[in-house]
Amino acid sequence: MIEDIQAAIPLGFLLSFMIGPVFFVLLETSAIKGFRAALCFDIGVIVADIIFISLAYFSSFQLLENLSNHPGLYVFGGTILLVYGLTNVFKKESHKQETKIRISKGDYLSLCVKGFLLNFINIGVLVFWLGIIIVVGPSLDNDSNRIILFFSAMIGAYFVTDIFKILLAKQLRKKLTKRRILLVKKGLGIILVICGLVLIVKGFLPKDQLNIEKGIELIRE
Questions:
Q1: pTM score, two decimals?
Q2: What is the pLDDT of residues 145-180, one digit of tens each?
Q3: Comparison of pLDDT for 193 and 154, the residue scoring more
Q4: Cβ–Cβ < 8 Å for 58, 155
Q5: C-alpha dihedral over 32, 34, 36, 42, to 10 degrees?
Q6: Which of 209, 195, 161 is CA-nearest to residue 79?
Q7: Residues 49/155, Cβ–Cβ less than 8 Å
Q8: HEC profile for 5-55?
Q9: What is the CA 186 to chain-centroid distance, rounded?
């Protein structure tokens, strides 16, 4: 149980720095409207993530059950992560003038709804969670309790990291130049590409080779 939590925390930390519109709106909300407003916005984002995780899990439940009998299905999950990662790696820097996202005055509930909608309309988030579940599911023995614990710990780490981002919003916005943002995107993309390739290779190897579950256990130790 403790091992599952320890494995989930670094992933939650990395997830918090997935550069996108949610990232910048969170920082801008904190700078303009304060800590509580940004916190409400972030809660909406997390609710959308929880829904996506649930949809990804239940849509892939049968797939997870079949992974032990059909290792070739690892190729499916690996391909998802590979494509998602390559998109980040090869996406060119936009030379368009950055447009500021205006945040109208409103109550905390409206900010929460805005956070939810901004995250929920991005179908790429669902694809990302589907790939993550296919990766970690077998290492957690496809146990629903362990999976819930793992993703709860990951979302918890994500939320705590976001709180620090909110507190340091002004400093982060000054330091996040276009060049640095591009490097962060490419770095995260490379990590996803490596995970995807490992998963694809796993699908083509005999069952006793390149055991991802044993690899994760070694990392935990």
A1: 0.69
A2: 888 899 999 999 999 999 998 888 877 767 766 677
A3: 154
A4: no
A5: 50
A6: 195
A7: yes
A8: HHHHHHHHHHHHCCCCHHHHHHHHHHHHHCHHHHHHHHHHHHHHHHHHHHH
A9: 15
